[in-house]
Amino acid sequence: MLDLLWLVPTIPFIGFLALMLSAGKMPPFAAGLVGAGSIGLSFLVACLVGVSYLNMEPTGEGIAYTQTLWTWLRVGDFSAGFSFYLDGLSLVMMFIITGVGFLIHVYATGYMKDDPGFARFFCYMNLFVAAMLILVLGDNLLLLFMGWEGVGLCSYLLIGFWYKDPHNGYAARKAFVMTRVGDASMALGLFLIFMSLGTLDIQAAMSTAESQWQPGSGMAVAITLLLLGGAVGKSAQLPLQTWLPDAMAGPTPISALIHAATMVTAGVYLIARTHVFYELAPSVQYLVGVIGVLTLLMAGFTALVQNDIKKVLAFSTVSQIGYMFLALGVGAWSSAVFHLMTHAFFKALLFLTAGSIILSMHHEQNIFKMGGLRRDLPFCFWMFLIGCLALTALPFTSGFFSKEEILAEALASPDGGYLLWLGGLTGAFLTGLYSFRLLFLVFFGEKRHAAEEMKGSNLQLPLVILAVFSILGGYIALPLDSVFPHAEHEAHPALHYQIIMIAVPMLGILLAWYLFVKRKDISDRLATDGMGKTLHRFFFSQWGMDWLYSLLFIKPYVWLSRINRRDFVDAFYNGTAGLARFAHGLLSDTQTGHLRWYVFCVGVGLLLLVSIGVFA
Amino acid sequence: MILIWLMLILFVGGIAAVIAERSNPMLPRVIALGALLLDLGLLLLVLFFPATMGADATNQISIGQEGEWLVLFQADWIPQLGISFIFGADGLSLLLIILTVFLGLMSLGAAWHEITERSGFFYLNLLWTLTGVIGVFSALDLFLFFVFWEVMLVPMYFIIAIWGHENKSYAAMKFFIFTQVSGLLMLVAMLGLVFAHYQTSGALTFNYFALLDGEFTTEVGFWLMLGFFIAFATKLPTVPLHNWLPDAHSQAPTAGSVILAGILLKTGAYGLLRFAQGLFPEESAAFAPVAMTLGAISILYTAKVAFAQDDLKRLIAYTSVSHMGFVMLGIYAWNAQSAQGAVMTMLAHGFSAAALFMVAGGLQHRLHTRDMRQMGGLWGVMPKLSFMALFFTVAAVGMPGLGNFIGEFLVLLGSFQRSVTITVFATGGLIVAAIYSLIVIQRTFHGEPKQQYGDVADLRKTEMACYIAMMLGLVWMGLYPQSMLALAESGLMNLGLDMSTGAR
């Protein structure tokens, strides 16, 4: 069954082609069937492939299956095949993408029901899934890069899906251009890998590097830094994280699929996929962890003060990916992927529930205009509660297992792990605080607007399934042992550390309850008075980073372009032409038609010639 | 003979078009279509049944180099001066000739409904321009090359000057002067080369193959190379010799812009490959840092200028210069990857730029303006045209899976091994390309409409057919570029490039 692998990305691609070629003429029901059905079919094929893979006999180093479709490029000593590579890591990613992707597609058939661009929506969505699958299945970095750019394009198209509002267009462009900055860095990384190792084949390049380079070698440092540039762009980590909150302009299923569950975790996948390079560059690997901690803290603080339900979730996503980066930074590769998966479950659940709330509230997203929705929307309440519990990592939820693992490994890692652990712990407290602030503000307190629950199996069933996985997903054992090296140190923190790690998120929840349910006046005062107000504004503006980037990059570029709109080089040529015309004019002025003038000129000329003859 | 036939068919077709106009003004375009289809058919025969067309690898004329000439034709012209008719096509020329005929058909599609006045003379100029281009791509006698170089210039001048837009005479004159001055420079360099060769070998000849092993001092070689370089760099064009292009492209009728961007620019790149690199390998290697720097500057500078334009056609024109910067970079980084990348960029840009000019021309035809400040929200009005614009914009941004990406990636991959610094700057082109491209989509197709568009029609069937053909071409190049790379490889080997590794 393994040779069916190529069908997994191909089926969504065929769905995309069918929807594109029908050019919007397909009735919504058919479009939904093609759009969601293709992903479902792809998931089934992925299951068949997965079962065969898990039954495969291990050969040599680990278990992997490669399928080459054709030679894509072969120039000189460079070659790249259109080849797919299946190992434990890509298997997990494939399941997340097709599985969670299918649920989100089903949900979207309900969510987008009345949209005139229904078919266009599914067309882009299917293209996205195909590109994402190519990203995780590509056996060389060029094919990975193709998927990488493809998902970026779909992200652009879907953020700006409601194209009539220029604000959406701006958000879409911002996302594309900012991630492209990272992509350019990643492209340079590819060039460097080819120059130093002679191939872009991931496994071959990594094994050559392992055998040829010493840990800490300059080449490994340069390569990992450049790849990291790509990863922080795609995964919205510092310093390229500012696009993700704006990306919430897209329809909510997009936020769930692209900007929570799959695409934004591509950076984590990239680093995990090329982990051998990072092991050869410990300083950069440590930097990954530092970036993760800084991002998770910054985003956590920012999430505390947002008033748009989707933006809170967006910053929460940035923050959770920060945890994954932290895990990568301390070499807890499997934990990073584990958290990637559990996060895909509960964050997709949260986003889709948020989508249902937004629909029920007639496209209201401001949480301060919600409140007391517990009774009107009981289904949403329970779903949201489960999502928040998993996000906060309460014991026995899926988020608990993955986050606990990350923190434990951070604590156990040598050099500076303690600081990273402390940062992660603070983040866990913030997570409890902001997620339950959100929950309390939306579902508790006084009721401001009536809302009616959205019914329908396509809107509710996916949520139930995701909720089940959000709770139980922690018990899934991932087949990653053959992909990553085993940790040298077994992470079993002492009991008091374990108690701390369980208690801290609960403290966050408690504080949220105190501030936003029990004594709401305190939180109101905090947001509007003196110091609190300043901090509030500072956090709200993402620590002024948008402002800074605008000042440093956007304004100068726009200004330079504007003053040189007419291309100053052209002035040289027009100047030459003008000069010639001027000289031409001078000479033609001498031709007046008056005899006296000519006689005068001849006279002066003679005089000049004679005087030259005499004096020279 | 096949190359002669290709040119003869177009040449005679042009004359027939003028004569046919007297009986029916709709007839010339049919004649042009017939001539181009006939050419395309001949080319396909060469490609798939080379033996029957006398184009066989075994039929090659030995020139003491690797690689093969698929088609060669030789006859005397002015033997006293060593001038002869030598036409030949290797993989590189053949690819470019196919591109020429194919885009000729596209420009015909663009002109089909747009050109109503003096249609006979228009199609004469169109076909004769293409004749000149095919001549340029296949002439292997320097004098003959120069003749064709001039032949393609004059009809193009008329196309801009007669059927152009509001500022056509300025644009046509500018185009003419730039090309003419640089052409004269090339002529001087050619004569210098021929005399230098005469002094050392005692034989007066313009034969390309004979001149390949000319010997001259480094200093002389450098100046001769520079003459060729400036001529071709103007045609390509590269900053700071690019200023004819935005005017010519924005003022030309759609069909003219398609040919200019799609084909004429490539004659500059072809010249750089065939003559600057082919005849002066050492001098070009020494000059490479300058040329590569110019390429990188072109990429970044014109992308920035493009971003600021309000005139859609002018914007696309500037982006052409930016993309040609990659070609320059690839040709002078001069290793297997970068040179193949330059060729792929030439082909892919031929398609994407031609299509984008058709989009701009189509919009102007419908809305009577090229000013993006008066557009916006067109997605809801013309979904098909908007989709095509989006597709080709995405291609031009360098999306993997489409041809342009293959070209740019290979160029950068190759040039990175030559100069890390220059390549880092050139890679910045990926970012600035995204900036100018997406702003076009926003200002033109997204957002709310800026005006009442009234009753504008979406794409016609002829237009649709053209766009789909170019789309398929780009997808083909993006997913299976190996088919074209294989053809180009033999041509690049003819130029003395070692194709086995990345290093020279």
TrEMBL record, chain A:
NCBIfam families: NDH_I_L, PRK06590.1. GO terms for molecular function: NADH dehydrogenase (ubiquinone) activity; NADH dehydrogenase activity. Residues 72-122 form the NADH-Ubiquinone oxidoreductase (complex I) chain 5 N-terminal domain. The keyword Coiled coil does not apply. This is NADH-quinone oxidoreductase subunit L. One of its GO terms (biological process) is electron transport coupled proton transport. Keywords: Membrane, Transmembrane, Transmembrane helix. It comes from Pseudohongiella nitratireducens.
From TrEMBL, chain B:
Its main location: membrane. Residues 139-426 form the NADH:quinone oxidoreductase/Mrp antiporter transmembrane domain. The keyword Transmembrane helix applies. GO terms for cellular component: endomembrane system; membrane. The keyword Nucleotide-binding does not apply. InterPro entries: NADH_Q_OxRdtase_chainM/4 (IPR010227), NADH_UbQ_OxRdtase (IPR003918), ND/Mrp_TM (IPR001750). This is NADH-quinone oxidoreductase subunit M. One of its GO terms (biological process) is ATP synthesis coupled electron transport. It is a multi-pass membrane protein. Keywords: Membrane, Transmembrane, Transmembrane helix. Pfam families: Proton_antipo_M. The chain crosses the membrane at residues 30-49, 94-113, 120-137, 143-163, 175-196, 216-234, 255-273, 285-303, 315-334, 346-364, 385-407, 419-441, 462-480. One of its GO terms (molecular function) is NADH dehydrogenase activity. The lineage of its organism: Bacteria, Pseudomonadati, Pseudomonadota, Gammaproteobacteria, Pseudomonadales. Belongs to the complex I subunit 4 family. It is found in: Endomembrane system; Membrane.
